[in-house]
Design brief:
The complex is a heterodimer of chains A (about 600) and B (about 375). Chain A has 2 domains: about 180 residues, Penicillin-binding protein 2a (Domain 2), CATH 3.90.1310; about 325 residues, Beta-lactamase (3-Layer(aba) Sandwich). Chain A has 20 helices and 23 strands. In chain A, strands 2, 3, 4, 5, 10, 18 and 19 form a 7-stranded mixed β-sheet that branches. In chain A, strands 12-11-23-22-21 form a 5-stranded antiparallel β-sheet, sandwiched between helices. Chain A has a 3-stranded antiparallel β-sheet with strand order 1-8-9. Chain A is α+β, with helices and mostly antiparallel strands. In chain B, strand 1 and strand 2 form a beta hairpin. Classes of the chains: A alpha+beta (about 600), B mainly alpha (about 375). At the A-B interface, helix 1 and helix 2 of A face helix 7, helix 10, helix 11, helix 12 and helix 13 of B.
Chain lengths: ~600, ~375
């Protein structure tokens, strides 16, 4: 019997040795692996969103900033513990917020392997935002009746605020949740400066490591890294000029419509001629950027991109393209001089000129007799340019010199402005079979298309002596603590292959346009002696539509380009708008 | 009273009391963030421990003649208790009808039933003698069927609850006591073969409840069902593993604090030690358990009579099997069957019964001063 006891003794001891060995294996040998698995169970990483940087104008006036608004979120873990799973609370909340119960239920559902529309892709341990920028009175009803809304939180949250309303809406752009990411993050810039300077504005989100229990409730904070706020973007936009530009477009469109024009859209660009910075960039129709706050209503979005409503979301100044008409003639003059036509020569301006087998006529068919190139620009004679184009076509049939000059002026390529979605415009290859195309091209008709910004930077090059800039809206990036992180200088995109004398001559020719030329009526009474302004009108024919009205103008410091689609004559619609903008730039008191 | 205190065996008493105290602390830690009545578990476990220690002291002074007289009554009462569980008096917890509700007090009759089985088997097997001629009722071999029949009643009642864990422990007690009683190996081999056959038959006839089958399947592959039964096994391993060598510190384990291990204060109390005290603390607890068992076996070795030797041996077999199965299931060496860890797990029935067993071991301890001159003992001791 005793030997049996000894046997039990050995057995028990062996058993405990096995247990000890296994304990060593689990805790010491494989301890790290199990510890990692355990911390994956009980440690949650939560992203602390960073406060987005501001966008301010040249004088520090905010264009986009943050304001706090009441946001309503739903905590799933609390709802899940209610007897009915929170259905009753969601029903009450839906009727309070004025949304459908089904939509609210969908938004608070977690995305699983098969994500449903509107489901919550973020952390299940974070309250799910169901409404942002909620009216304060509604939010207060949730706060005051917390017993009726368990698990519903109404708290202050930063949302984008545009203190100047519609001003520069297209330039600023907008922020919206990033739908490419399947993890819920702070809204990202999706258009305009918000998108172009996303990396600067975004800031660095912080993180928090929370220890949670098996029910998902937070027990304590393990580690915390605070978020770094985004940097402020200082732009070269002068919001005073910007507002004046927008008002000028509205006024021009209004009066054009009174004259029977369609005038369905308009755009204007103000550049600093010598630096290539954008001072103002306006589009009509515009929209109120506050529609983006708190998530855009799909119906509102549909209106913003509806063509019949003029696609208000479109930034026509950089995305729209039209034939430049007579504003184009500066490139044609430059090409003609480069091809050996005497700068100060005298040319005949008949009422019509035969190119190949077709007669090309002046505007209105009027002949002006012999004149120099200055006068040709001033009165906008077409036939002189038809002749140039036809002769060049015969001399160089494979590459028309006017096309290569236009390319040197930056047309047919994106300007590289710091705004997304820019159009390149269109330039033909210049190896036409028929000379009529060349003739049309010489006066900015036919196959050529430009954006208002392209035209503006070409005129800036003309004004500044030949430097072609890649325009910039952003001027500098300033950290939240005031330290300048980065100065932004518009890069030089090229130099005009045009002599100093030629440029001076063209400038001189254009300076008479506002005094005695096609824009004289628009600038009647303007103190041109004090503030000389040069410019060129353009009236582009569009098949099936009314004429596009252009006015491109500049003085020593600024360039103002105005385009009114279906606005009629350049001198009649665009030039007066440009005059209003110039009044704002020069601070001229208008009666 | 003095006589009773003198009867206490320090080498058994100290590790047992230390385990009880450790159990109280671990129960406290595992229920520190309980949603309902925090602290109630701690208070109750302290009361159970104190009551158990009182029972232990009381039983330590019992003389061997009284002890022998209790065998049969304990067995009958134990079986009645197990039968009562199956009547409307019983309460179902976690799928098993293991609890008896008496005047608001809940207890598990299956816990004292283990001790009763030990006493009953000892009275049956301890009075047998190899000196009797074979075929006579007094001969050891003749007592084997009787012993199996004796064990079958409580075992069957427990299986009806169903409580696979307790059934296994009872089977281990029976097997262990048959070995200690000196049953010839060929009989034991035959029994083992029969048991294996019966287990196979039970599996084949699907006599086990689905949740029991699930537990056994999960044991084979813990990641098979990470949300269900496997969750418990996986969480237990992660919790123990994250303790490392020296643990996260008492009351500082995040797995324990976050209540990731279900039934942590009862069957999975060892995970608390693993996470918060590390290998150092958990191994110390295992050593203390081993010390209790070792001491029990020393007592068995020196027992004055075969009956007492069998009681001591049976108690050791019971506690050893229960400790090994409990720790084994926590460490992924055994399937998840619900058995508490002796002296450490939360629960009145278990704590009281284990300490009572310790008291009985002490009462068996051969005190040299009232020793009968038993020659073999003297030989062993020298």
């Amino acid at each position: 019997m005793r030997s049996r006891i000894v046997l039990v003794q050995v057995l028990v001891t062996c058993l405990f040795c096995v247990l000890l060995g296994r304990l060593w294996q689990v805790q010491v040998v494989d301890g790290d692996r199990y510890a990692r698995a355990a911390s994956a169970d009980h440690v949650r990483h939560v992203v602390v969103p960073a406060v987005r940087g501001r966008i301010v104008d040249d004088h520090g006036r905010p264009l986009a900033r943050n304001r706090t608004a009441m946001a309503v979120s739903v905590d799933r873990t609390v709802l899940a513990r209610l007897p009915d799973g929170g259905r009753d609370v969601l029903r009450r909340l839906a009727s309070l917020l004025g949304v459908s119960r089904r939509e609210l239920a969908a938004r608070t559902r977690l995305c699983d392997a098969k994500p449903k529309k509107g489901c919550w892709a973020g952390s299940p341990y974070r309250p799910i935002p169901v409404a942002e920028a909620v009216d304060e009175r509604i939010a207060m009803r949730i706060v005051e009746r917390a017993d009726r809304f368990p698990g519903v939180v109404a708290e202050l949250q930063p949302v984008r605020d545009h203190p100047q309303g519609e001003t520069a809406a297209h330039v600023i752009g907008y922020v919206a949740p990033d739908d490419r990411s399947n993890v819920a993050t702070a809204p990202v810039g999706r258009d305009g400066l918000e998108a172009a300077y996303e990396a600067d504005l975004r800031g660095t989100p912080g993180s928090r490591e929370l220890v949670v229990d098996s029910a998902g409730r937070v027990v304590r904070t393990l580690r915390e890294r605070p978020a770094e706020p985004g940097a402020t973007l200082v732009t070269s936009i002068d919001s005073r000029v910007q507002r004046a530009t927008e008002r000028a477009l509205e006024k021009a469109v209004r009066s054009a419509r009174k004259r029977g024009r369609v005038a369905d859209s308009a755009a204007a660009v103000v550049l600093e001629a010598r630096t290539g910075r954008v001072v103002a960039l306006a589009n009509l129709p515009g929209y109120d950027p506050s529609v983006w706050v708190g998530g855009i209503d799909p119906k509102v979005y549909a209106r913003l991109v509806d063509e019949r409503r003029g696609s208000p979301l479109l930034s026509r100044a950089i995305q729209g393209q039209w034939a430049p008409a007579s504003t184009w003639k500066v490139t044609s003059v430059a090409a003609a001089v480069r091809e050996g036509r005497p700068l100060t020569g005298s040319y005949d301006c008949p009422g019509s000129y035969r190119v190949g087998d077709r007669d090309f006529r002046n505007y209105g068919g009027v002949g002006y007799g012999r004149m120099d190139l200055r006068r040709a620009l001033e009165v906008s004679c077409d036939t002189i340019f038809y002749r140039f184009a036809y002769e060049m076509w015969r001399e160089k049939p494979k590459g028309h010199p006017m096309v290569s000059m236009a390319r040197a002026f930056g047309f047919g390529a994106k300007t590289g402005v710091d705004l997304p979605g820019e159009s390149a415009g269109y330039l033909p290859r210049g190896d036409w079979d028929a000379p009529g195309h060349a003739a049309n091209f010489s006066i900015g008709q036919g196959e050529v298309l430009v954006t208002p910004l392209q035209l503006a930077r070409a005129y800036a090059a003309l004004a500044n002596g030949g430097t072609l800039f890649s325009p910039r809206v952003g001027k500098r990036v300033v950290a939240a603590d005031g330290k300048v992180l980065r100065e932004i200088t518009p890069p030089v995109a090229g130099r005009l292959p045009v002599g100093r004398k030629t440029l001076a001559y063209i400038r001189q020719g254009l300076s008479d346009v506002t005094r005695t030329g096609t824009a004289a009526a628009a600038f009647a009474g303007y103190p041109l002696d004090k503030h000389p302004i040069a410019g060129k009108t353009g009236t582009a024919e569009v098949f099936g539509k009314q004429d596009t009205s252009w006015f491109a103008s500049f003085d020593r410091r600024h360039v103002v380009v105005v385009m009114v689609a279906q606005g009629g004559n350049g001198g009649e619609t665009a030039a007066p708008a440009a005059r209003d903008i110039w009044s704002a730039i020069h601070r001229v008191e208008e009666k | 009273m003095i006589r009773r205190l003198r009867a206490l065996d320090p080498l058994l008493c100290l590790p047992a009391a230390a385990l009880c105290a450790a159990g109280v602390v671990l129960v406290w830690s595992s229920t520190r963030s309980a949603i309902d009545d925090t602290g109630a578990y701690l208070t109750r476990q302290i009361l159970y421990g104190l009551a158990g220690l009182a029972v232990m002291v009381a039983l330590a002074g019992v003389d061997r003649w009284s002890l022998r007289a209790w065998g049969l009554p304990a067995y009958v009462i134990g079986c009645l208790g197990l039968a009562a569980v199956l009547t409307p008096l019983g309460v179902t917890v976690n799928g098993s009808r293991s609890w008896l509700n008496l005047a608001g007090l809940q207890f598990q009759p299956s816990e004292p039933a283990k001790l009763a089985l030990v006493l009953a088997l000892a009275s049956l097997l301890g009075t047998a003698s190899d000196d009797e001629p074979p075929g006579r009722p007094g001969h050891a071999a003749a007592r084997l069927p009787a012993a199996l029949g004796l064990a079958a009643v409580p075992l069957g009642l427990v299986m009806l609850q169903p409580d696979l864990g307790t059934a296994l422990i009872m089977a281990a007690i029976t097997a262990g006591m048959l070995v200690v009683a000196g049953t010839p190996w060929r009989w034991i081999a035959l029994l083992a073969a029969l048991a294996a056959g019966a287990a196979g038959l039970a599996w084949w006839l699907r006599l086990l409840k689905p949740h029991q089958v699930q537990r056994l399947l999960v044991f084979a592959d813990p990641s098979a069902d990470p949300q269900g039964v496997g969750y418990n096994a996986l969480q237990a391993l992660e919790t123990v593993g994250s303790g490392g060598l020296f643990g996260q510190g008492l009351f500082r384990g995040d797995q324990t604090g976050g209540r990731f291990v279900p039934e942590q204060h009862t069957d999975f109390i060892f995970t608390v030690a693993g996470e918060e005290l590390g290998f150092a603390g958990a191994a110390l607890l295992l050593l203390l358990l081993w010390a209790v068992l070792w001491r029990g076996l020393r007592i068995a070795m020196r027992a004055a009579s075969p009956y007492e030797r069998l009681v001591a041996g049976g108690i050791v077999c019971w506690l050893a099997a229960q400790s090994a199965i409990n720790v084994g299931m926590v460490l992924g060496l055994a399937p998840i069957v619900g058995v508490p860890l002796p002296l450490l797990s939360y629960g009145g029935s278990s704590t009281l019964t284990c300490l009572a067993a310790a008291g009985i071991l002490m009462s068996i301890r051969h005190d040299p001063r009232d020793a009968l001159p038993v020659a073999p003992d003297v030989r062993i001791r020298s």
